[in-house]
Each structure stands twice: as C-alpha cells, then as structure tokens.
C-alpha cells in the first residue's frame, strides 16, 4: 500500500481498522441509482441541462461509487462559445467520456476545443480517453496529484464498478493552466485556485452567465468527501467564495443551486465535523465509539451519508487523536 490517499487505499484502511459492524456499513454502497442508467447495456443515459445560454451541466448520482450508478457521481459540464466547446471534467470512465462527447455532439455543432479539470480526483479525468485529440488543462498541483494516484484510481474503480470501467486507462492533462483566466472556446472565463478539499481546487467562472463550477470545494445535499482534505484551508476557501459574487453554483457532487446554499451547507458540516472529532479525541473515544455518537439529522439526510461519513472519520480522526495526545 502506498499510503492512504487513493480511493481504494481509503476503503482498505477503513476495513482494516473498523470492527465487523462498521465493515458492513462501508460495504453498503449508499444512494439510489441514477434514473435511466441501463446496467445491461452500460448506458449512462447522460442528459445535458441548460443553466444559461451555452452553459450545460450533466448531473451525476448523489450516492456512492457502485455498479448501480456506473460510478457516476460527478456533475460534469460544458460551455459552448463562439468557436468551440470547453468541457469541465470528463467523468469516471472511458465509457462515460465517450458518451459525454456524443452528448455534446448532439447538443451543439461546435467542436470540442479543450478540457478543464478542477481537481485530481478520478471522476474528474478518467473519461479523458474520449478527448485525447484536444488540449486538457489542469493546475500543476492537480497534474502532480493525478500522476501519483492514477494507477490506484484505475484499479480500485474497477473493483467497485466492474464492467463500467472496461478499457479505462488514465490519460493525464497535457497543459498546465496559467494563473489568470484566458479565453477558451470563445468564452470569457476566469478561475481562482484555492485549496482544502485537495491541494489545488479550481473554481471556474463564466463572465457572461455568472455560472460558477465550484469543483470539490462545494457539496450540496451530499456529504463531502475528504481523502485529501485539510479542513482549515477548506473553510478559508469557502469564506472566500461566500464573500465573492453570487450566481448559480455547480458543485462537482450534489444539487446544482441558483444560490450559495451549497457553500453554507459545506461550511456548516465541516465546522461541525472538525469540532465533533476534536471533542471525541479529547474524550479518548476509539473509532467504533465515535461512529456510535449521534449526528445531526440534517446531515444524515444527505446523499452517501452511510458510507461517506465513515470515511470522513477514517481520514480525519487520526490527526485529532495525535493532537489530543500532545495536549495530555
């Protein structure tokens, strides 16, 4: 095992540390399948929803990685400009990428000009084989993280999602994004590189529509994922987003909202989680005892709670335990 940052290593770490009852919780992949997904034919049945003229989102499931949803948890998107299309994230598999590109072709006659990746997680880039002929942009830190994690992502998503992953091989970005916005595909775009969910979290803004693709910094109606998280940095980034312009926010996971609800939800959850873990560590609780503690009902209603909250604890609690030992 090469550390605990890859998704499969995260699951392994949880299984290795947890007691039997907790292992069963981890094995119960949460969330309903996407409406219309055809498992027999491996058809994601993707659809594009217009958020503004030329701005589309392709919404994913709110649950956890599973064969029932084809490992499709992500909201991808594309922006149609005067001379082409910019694709935002390419999904969890070669098959998803191919079906996304076909959907774009059915939606517009403009050619795909570029792909932009918002962070290093697997469903942001494992569809890249379908976009091998166009520039694929990411920040330097995201590219470095993808290089380190790509093989583990491939292996573990195969284990989780089976045939949906056939033929999927990581094709990395081939361009490093400059610090300031540039014009891509004939649209006026800007971005800011923040951190906290990962070491490099890109937020993309479209000047004409006001739509913002918030990446993994914002989760709406879904429990946040935390394999690479640093909570203090994440909360600072959310504060920066909350202080900025309003508009429609597209989280990479969860409900697309025409307001800042997802920013507020994510911030409240992270503040609660950080305090909850800190208090448990000071009380000397082990992980099983911690997982038996009550959780606010609002958070329990969110997508993927049964699995994602357990992983949150597995990822973050050891740091709190270490800090509490230093205080004793």
Give the topology, please.
Elements (H helix, E strand, L loop, with lengths): L6 H11 L2 H8 L21 E4 L2 E4 L17 E5 L4 E4 L5 H14 L4 E5 L19 E3 L1 H22 L13 E2 L6 E2 L2 E8 L6 E6 L5 E9 L10 H12 L6 E6 L6 H23 L3 H5 L5 H4 L4 H23 L1
Parallel strand pairs: 4-5, 5-6, 6-7, 11-12
Antiparallel strand pairs: 1-2, 2-3, 3-4, 8-9, 9-10, 10-11
Helix pairs in contact: 1-9, 2-9, 5-6, 6-9
Structural class: alpha/beta
Major beta-sheet overview: 7 strands, mixed
Helicity level, as a percent range? Answer: 25-40%
- Taking pLDDT < 50 over at least 5 consecutive residues as the criterion, the unreliable ranges are 1-33
Total DSSP E strands: 12
* CATH fold naming: Metallo-beta-lactamase, Chain A
Overall pLDDT = 88
Order of helices and strands: HHEEEEHEEHEEEEEHEHHHH
What's the helix count?
A: 9
The CATH homology group name:
Ribonuclease Z/Hydroxyacylglutathione hydrolase-like
Q: Per the principal axes of the C-alpha atoms, what is the gross shape? A: globular
Adjacency order of strands in the biggest sheet: 1-2-3-4-5-6-7
CATH class: Alpha Beta
Strand content: 15-25%
**Radius of gyration, whole Å:** 19 Å
CATH architectural designation: 4-Layer Sandwich
> How many discrete structural domains?
1
N-to-C CA distance? 32 Å
């Amino acid at each position: 095992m090469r550390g605990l940052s890859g998704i499969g290593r995260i699951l392994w770490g949880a299984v290795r540390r947890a007691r039997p009852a907790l292992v069963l919780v981890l094995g119960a992949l949460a969330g309903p399948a996407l409406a219309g997904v055809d498992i027999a034919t491996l058809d994601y049945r993707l659809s594009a929803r217009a958020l503004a003229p030329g701005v589309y989102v392709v919404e994913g499931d709110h649950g956890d990685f599973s064969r029932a949803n084809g490992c499709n948890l992500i909201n991808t998107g594309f922006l149609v400009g005067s001379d082409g299309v910019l694709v935002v994230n390419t999904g969890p598999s070669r098959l998803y990428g191919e079906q996304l590109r076909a959907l774009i072709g059915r939606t517009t006659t403009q050619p795909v000009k570029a792909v932009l990746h918002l962070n290093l997680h697997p469903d942001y880039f494992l569809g890249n084989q379908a976009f091998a002929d166009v520039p694929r942009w990411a920040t330097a830190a995201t590219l470095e993280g993808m290089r380190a994690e790509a093989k583990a992502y491939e292996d573990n998503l195969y284990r989780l999602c089976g045939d949906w992953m056939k033929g999927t091989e990581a094709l990395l970005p081939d361009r490093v994004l400059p610090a300031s916005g540039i014009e891509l595909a004939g649209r006026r775009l800007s971005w800011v590189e923040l951190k906290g969910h990962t070491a490099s979290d890109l937020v993309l803004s479209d000047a004409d529509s006001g739509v913002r693709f918030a990446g993994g910094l914002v989760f709406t109606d879904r429990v946040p994922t935390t394999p690479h998280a640093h909570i203090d940095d994440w909360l600072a980034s959310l504060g920066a987003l909350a202080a900025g312009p309003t508009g429609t926010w597209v989280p990479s996971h969860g409900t697309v909202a025409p307001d800042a609800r997802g920013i507020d939800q994510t911030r409240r959850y992270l503040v609660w989680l950080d305090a909850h873990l800190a208090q448990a560590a000071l009380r000397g609780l082990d992980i099983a005892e911690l997982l038996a503690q009550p959780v606010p009902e609002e958070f329990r209603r969110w997508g993927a709670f049964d699995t994602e909250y357990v992983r949150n604890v597995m990822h973050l609690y050891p740091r709190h335990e270490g800090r509490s030992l230093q205080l004793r």
